[in-house]
Design a protein that fits this description.
Length: 370
């Protein structure tokens, strides 16, 4: 694994190669030293950050290209996880086998952010931060081996990035069904909802869930909501919770381990995925594998991913979301049926024994053609 900061925590025996950057989203721009700015890639990141941009995809691509060209003999195949940088294209053009995963085009995030932006200055800043999309679209259209995680994402990539559909292979994300599983010894709380969502990302639909929760709380005074998220202090999510007077009924859980999440699923009554758009929606699959009834929006690929494994509602429809959650809370037979169907779907379609084999075959095809 080759990574810039923030560096991932990996399992053995995966080795981490660290490619340092200025890491300007974890430090103050004013703390950058003249010595650091001698590096032209550092200067590019610094100037971009000062002007509201996000240069890290390009600079990481430059660093990883140089490192891999110097160590190419050590590897059979290179798998790019949506860097979509000029440096990645250089590796392909050098004759190295490159497979690229595009989870979904970030242009979809840009569209949602622009809809939620107030004022021309905010919209200008949103567009400036997403300016790396010009590079990503240009690079994606020239890559030979693209993998994505759903048919919905494949269609969006073809539309937004100009990639030929024939160049895209759909391989879903896998879930560890030995880790994400039902815990029959854990007693469910009769009135506890759970959701995993990036609290201040509009795409994740948390505002829709909070408004649905407000509707439900009127007739269900004991209902509680667990959010596996870390909201930005003073951000939009905290403001909405105050406005809806729900602060004493919502618990945020930040930094939860996978084992913590599995236990929270086991003790909760309904899992909710309220996203306005998802290229895949791994929390939905993890919930299904964990044996908890699932209510999900149909945003992006979620209808495709959830299928018969949960109740689907139109993305962004607050009343429909509240109604579906209420139906599951009110009907034990429906809840049990959703658990059964969700677990079956997770194991048959999304377990690593299925998904990893498909990726291995894609690697071999790429190697054979180079």
């Amino acid at each position: 694994m080759i990574s810039g900061p923030p560096y991932p925590n990996l399992v053995e025996p995966v080795r981490l190669v660290k490619l340092p950057s200025l890491d300007l989203y974890a430090r103050d721009v004013g703390s950058v030293t003249r010595r650091e700015l001698r590096d032209p890639l550092n200067r590019r990141e610094w100037v971009s950050k000062l002007s509201g941009g996000f240069a890290e995809p390009w600079t990481f691509g430059e660093r990883v290209r140089d490192w891999l060209l110097a160590h190419a003999q050590q590897f059979d195949v290179i798998h790019d996880n949506q860097t979509l940088a000029d440096g990645i294209l250089d590796l392909q053009q050098a004759g190295l086998p490159v497979v690229t995963t595009i989870h979904h085009p970030i242009s979809r995030d840009l569209n949602v952010a622009l809809v939620g932006a107030s004022g021309w200055r905010t919209r200008l800043l949103v567009r400036r931060w997403h300016s790396f999309l010009t590079m990503q679209a240009r690079v994606a259209a020239q890559l030979n081996h693209i993998v994505t995680v759903s048919s919905a994402s494949a269609a969006d990539i073809a539309t937004d990035f100009g990639v030929l559909p024939s160049a895209i292979k759909v391989i879903p994300n896998g879930v560890d069904t030995e880790l994400f599983r039902a815990l029959p010894d854990v007693i469910r709380k009769p009135a506890q909802l759970i959701a995993t969502a990036s609290a201040d990302a509009p795409l994740k639909g948390l505002a829709v869930l909070l408004q649905a929760f407000k509707i439900l709380s009127t007739d269900r005074p004991t209902l509680q909501l667990i959010l596996i998220a870390s909201p930005k202090p003073g951000g939009d999510t905290e403001a909405l919770i105050r406005q809806l007077a729900l602060g004493d009924r919502i618990q945020f859980v930040g930094g939860a381990s996978h084992a913590d999440i599995v236990r929270l699923y086991a003790e909760s009554t309904v899992a909710v995925v309220p996203s306005l758009y998802e290229g895949f929606g791994l929390p939905a699959v993890e919930a299904m594998a964990s044996g908890i009834p699932l209510v999900s929006s149909d945003g992006g690929a979620l209808a495709e991913v959830v299928g018969e494994g949960g109740l689907l509602v139109p993305a962004g429809d607050t009343k429909a979301l509240a109604g579906a959650i209420d139906a599951v809370l009110s009907d034990a037979d429906l809840a049990a049926e959703l658990v059964k169907r969700g677990q079956q779907r997770a194991h048959r379609t999304f377990s690593w024994s299925v998904c990893a084999q498909q990726m291995v075959e894609q690697y071999q095809q790429c190697i054979d053609l180079c």
